[in-house]
Amino acid sequence: MTGIRTERAPAGAAAATDPAAELVAAARLHPTQAQRTFRAVLDALARPGTPGRLPGDAPGSVPAVLLPVLALADLGTGICVADAAGDPENWSAVAGVATSAPVAPLEEAALVTALRTITPDQVRRLRRGDARRPEDGALLCVPISDVQGGGRTWRLSGPGVPGELAVAPQGVPDGLLAARAEAVAAFPAGIDLLLTTPGGRVIGLPRSTAIVEEDG
Question: Per CATH, is 19-146+171-208 categorized as 3.40.50.11310?
Answer without folding.
Answer: yes
